[in-house]
Amino acid sequence: MEFAHERELAGADGKRRVIKDRLGRVVEDIGESVQPVDGRDLRLTIDSKVQFFAYQKVRDAVAEHRATSGSVVVLDVASGGVLAMANYPSFVPVCAAPARAR
User: Using DSSP, how many helices (H) and how many strands (E) does the chain show?
Assistant: First the structure.
């Protein structure tokens, strides 16, 4: 979720130009300062206990029925919030990070 919503979560840095003395102390501000902007909050509806139970149940069901994989989604009918999502075998998404030079 953090990767998908990185822009909204990050906010923006502030900026300030200053003159410092030889000891690194700020002596004077130069020009206008730009205040930092806080990022937005992201609230998840995932319930860790329900998530754990859902994973155990889908794992056991895959083994019992000799399936290749299984998935489960648990929703809160009142709010529509996602309480748990589980896949078996587990899926680890690959981040779109740049390839490293060898």
Answer: 2, 4
Q: pTM above the 0.70 mark?
A: no
**What kind of fold does domain 44-93 have according to CATH?**
Beta-Lactamase (3.30.450)
Q: What are the pLDDT digits (tens) for 25-45? A: 999 999 899 999 999 998 899
Phi-psi sector, 66: left (phi>0), alpha (psi -120 to 50), beta: left
Cα dihedral 54/58/60/65 (nearest 10): 160
Average pLDDT over residues 61-67: 96
The ranges of the chain annotated as CATH 3.30.450.330 are 44-93
90 closest CA partner among 61, 60, 65, 70: 70
Q: Are 97 and 83 in contact (CB under 8 A)?
A: no
Cα gap 61→63, rounded to integer Å:
5
Q: How far apart are alpha carbons 15 and 35 in whole angstroms?
A: 7
